[in-house]
Amino acid sequence: MKSKHLFNIYDSCDIHSGMNNVYYIFMENLSCDDINSFYLAYTNIIRERNHYIKTIPPSYEYVREWCLNNIKQQELHLITKYNNALVGSCDIYSRRYEGAPHIGVLSIFVVKGYRGCGIASQLLKDTLEKAQQRGFEKIELEVLANNSSAIRCYKKFGFFQEGVRHKAKKLGPGKYIDVVLMAKYLDEPNNVL
User: Fold this and answer.
1) Distance (Å) of CA 128 to CA 35, 92, 131, 149
2) Residue 20 CA neighbour count, 13 Å, CB half
3) Contact present, 62 and 42 (Cβ < 8 Å)
4) Helix orientation angle between 119-133 and 148-156, rounded to the nearest 10 degrees
5) pLDDT tens, residue by residue, 46-98
6) Spatial separation of the C-alpha atoms in residues 118 and 8, rounded to whole Å
7) CA dist., res. 62 & res. 141, Å (int)
C-alpha cells in the first residue's frame, strides 16, 4: 500500500541557503525500506532533548518491531523524504485496546534543518484527512510546553488544550518541562483540515 504524494517547499528552510528555488518533497506511507532512516531521524530528534518527550532513544530492535507492526497492521504512518532521506514523520495509532477505538494518538517530527518550511503542516493535513477517512473521531497528542512553534501549528489545525502534565519531563536536577495535552474532534462542522 505504497502511495506517493509530491508537494513543494521553498528554500527558506535551510535546505540550501541563499537560493530562491522550490524543492520537492515526497510523502508516502512508511515501508520496510524506510525503517533504518526512520530510526536515525527518530533517535536524532530524541537526542536534541528539546522537541520530544522521550529522553533516551529506544533500541533499534524495538523501533524496528514497532515499525513492522505498524506496516503489518496498516496503521496510519506517513513520512516525508527529500533526496531519499527521511525528513519528517507523522503517525496516528488507535486506542482500540484501551476501549476507545474512536480516538487516535498523533506523533509527529520534522528533522532539524527542515523545520519552518511547511513539512509539518503538510504532514498534519494529509494525516488528519486520512484519519477522518478511517473513522477516527478524536485525535490526541502531547507536546512539550516550551515547543511554541509546534503548539501554534497544532492550533492552526484546530487542536485545543485539554490539560497539562506538570513537570512531566526532567532535564536535570531541578529542571523540568510541562507537557501540554491537546486534542481535536474530526467530526465537528468547523473542523480545520
Assistant:
1) 23, 9, 5, 19
2) 0
3) no
4) 40
5) 988 777 778 789 999 999 999 999 899 888 999 988 877 899 999 998 887 77
6) 9
7) 21
